Amino acid sequence: MTPAPLTTRTRTAWSPAPGRPTWGIVLGDAVRAAALVSVLVAAATSDGVAVALFALVLGGSMVPRAAGAPAWLDVTCGTVMLAAAWCAVAGLYERVEGLDLLVHAVATGALAALAHQVLTRGGVAVSPVRHRATAALTTAGLGVLLAVVWELLEAAGHTFVDDSIHVTYPDTVGDLAAALAGSVAAALLVAGVAARTPARGLP
User: Fold this and answer.
1) Which segments cross the bilayer (predicted)?
2) Where are the domains of the chain?
3) Residue 66 and residue 28: Cα distance in Å, rounded?
């Protein structure tokens, strides 16, 4: 069988999920536009680290739309990633006690739910509608994995890019604990949403 043209496959991957509300598309794309503006602002006013950070956020904000994520997850992921980046650039993590842990919990939870959505759409993970417990465990595991990878990237950034990146043992342990809490919350949310979702047409 001849594979579909690349443009067709791309258009299909970028199509909104069936029944996706217009407000979700508009708000999600507004967040992506804000991420693009942030890249331009950082390029004009800040250093290369800030530009790379916002470029990462911009790329990440494309994933929920391409993965056909629900509107609430699309908007949440994009907003959380963008807010986390601005907090870092503005130095708020150093000035507001506990903000770092809060952002780690919320961001890891949102990204864990998104990662499960991506794997489900790709046929790698089971549908949460039919296998809620498995989906919840997978979501929690993905969140923990993402948190560990992030801490490794922070350590590498501190060593090879910018030694002002805050990396200490208590900070790392606290971040991982917050990420675990966020991952568990995301797992419960995925299972809870699935419990109220009809199973028609899902594997």
Assistant:
1) 33-59, 71-93, 131-153, 173-195
2) 21-90, 97-203
3) 11
